Amino acid sequence: MPIETPVADKLEKLEKEVRRWSSITRKDLLMQLASLGLEQQSELVKSIRAKLFKKEGDLEGAAFSFIRHGIFFERGVGRGRPVGSSQAAKLAKPWLKPIIPDAVEKLADILVEEYADVAASEVKINIPGIISSKVTR
């Protein structure tokens, strides 16, 4: 019978994996900005942050933040160029849309392949005096 890794150890490893994923995704965003010629937008480049959110010590979520102007580049909007205008469409420099959907898929793959068992291992069925069982994989 294989020795099971304690859930706390798996959760710690999960946090490291998500932190690594967020770092890679941030670098991918920076590379996308560079490929669009926006690396000189130092305020935007410096503002891109990856954050992990915790609740009671447990990882609860991940997010990216950046200055508001980053959305203007994404959509091509600004001074006299409203959303949906042909001029905005011509000037749009998508730097989020080409990266984020694939990054989310990669994160989902990491979670499914490596950590689905963490959630399953926490499922317990307890009906006092009748059944006390824990899900095993």
Describe the structure using short key phrases.
137 residues, alpha+beta, 5 helices
Low-confidence stretches: none
Distance between the termini: 12 Å
Question: Strand-and-helix sequence, N→C?
Answer: HHEEHHHEE
Structural class: alpha+beta
What is the general shape? elongated
Average of pLDDT = 85
| CA-atom Rg in angstroms | 21 Å
- Count the beta strands: 4
How many H/I helices? Answer: 5
Q: Brief description of this entry?
A:
By secondary structure, the chain is α+β, with helices and mostly antiparallel strands.
How is this structure best described in words?
- Helix 1 (7-35) packs antiparallel against helix 5.
- The mean pLDDT is 85.
- This protein has a two-stranded antiparallel ribbon with strand order 1-2.
- Helices cover 51% and strands 17% of the residues.
- By secondary structure, the protein is an alpha+beta fold.
